[in-house]
Amino acid sequence: MQKLASRLISHSVRSAPFRLLGAAALILITALTCAAADLGLVDAATLKGNAGKWTVLDARPKAEWEAGHIPGAIPFYWESYTRTDAKGVKYSSFPPQELAQALSGLGIDEKTPLVIYGDADKSWGSEGYDAWLFSWLGHKGPIRLLNGGIQAWNGSSFPLVKGSERQQARKVHYQADPKPQYLVSTEEVQRKNGLQLVDVRSTFEWFKGRIPGSVHIPWEDFHTGKDRHPLPPAELKKLLVKHGVDPNKPVAYYCLGGVRSAYAWTVHQLSGLPEARNYKGSWAAWEKRAQ
Questions:
Q1: In the CATH scheme, what architecture does the domain 39-178 have?
Q2: Can you give the pLDDT of all 291 residues of the chain as single tens digits?
Q3: What keywords is this UniProt entry annotated with (predicted)?
Q4: What's the DSSP call for residue 228?
């Protein structure tokens, strides 16, 4: 019996490095699978100086795009890629493969460098929604927000184009690789599991009804006032702490349909804080939940 025990201990010691190596490999594979999206900011001068190197997406309503847009920008407003789903939930984003097909038709593949801009006063944070959408799809190319949006471009007196432009889309195939860690489901919200919920709707919406246990921070608080820049990391952390949210613990944002909350999510991701999640269905899905 002692000899058997000795052999077992010896085998355990010899195999330990291999078990550690296997565990390390598993961690590495997991890290690669869950690699964060390449999100960042770009200023107006840099964008203008690198015209043609990025695919530019205009996240404002189509009428705003037609009235004047950055040269070469493709209209990409959230309403064009959402609908009421089979459960009656409004503002549901298209399924990943349907989005991938639409993006392929625009000449965008999963490695295309993107710059997204909006208008903080008119587009409900749609530029943040687009950034979240591409992150969720598993976009592998860089995703940049124009810092300050269309206001920054106009403030630099850079040119705009009115109406449609003749653009030849490349023939490409967008390969979606959805990242579930960037969203949260109604079932997960119901279970909570330590998840801190932040409601970014207006004060009026908040008082009409909210998810139990959520705190209220209007989405406009996630950008600076005059220049419409996303909050710097230190300011975001201060904002969250002020409202009783621990920035080092899991956070999920919600609004009416996941658009404004996606802007808050994007600002959170840009800050370098632990990753947040967007409640894609938001209040529209919460109202349809099984009681």
A1: 3-Layer(aba) Sandwich (3.40)
A2: 444 344 333 433 344 443 433 433 333 333 333 467 999 999 999 999 998 999 999 999 999 999 999 999 999 999 999 998 888 888 899 999 999 999 999 999 999 999 999 998 888 899 999 999 999 999 999 999 999 999 999 999 999 999 988 777 788 999 999 999 999 999 999 998 899 999 999 999 999 999 999 999 999 999 998 888 999 999 999 999 999 999 999 999 999 999 999 999 999 999 999 989 999 999 999 999 865
A3: Repeat
A4: -
Q: Report the topology of domain 181-286.
A: Oxidized Rhodanese; domain 1 (3.40.250)
Which 8-state DSSP code applies to residue 207? H
Distance CA 56, CA 75 (A): 9
**In the chain, which residues fall in CATH 3.40.250.10?**
39-178, 181-286
Residue 173: how many CB atoms within 10 A of its CB? 10
3-state secondary structure of 156: coil
Single pTM value for the model: 0.86
Residue spans of beta strands (DSSP E) within 126-200: 143-146, 196-199
d(CA 110, CA 290): 36
Rounded Cα gap, residues 151 and 227, in angstroms: 7
Locate 205 and state its tokens: 């919406």
Burial of residue 107, with CB atoms counted within 10 A of its CB: 0-12 exposed, 13-18 middle, 19 or more buried? middle
Closest CA to 78 of 287, 265, 260: 260
Q: Are strands 92-93 and 82-83 parallel, antiparallel or unpaired?
A: antiparallel
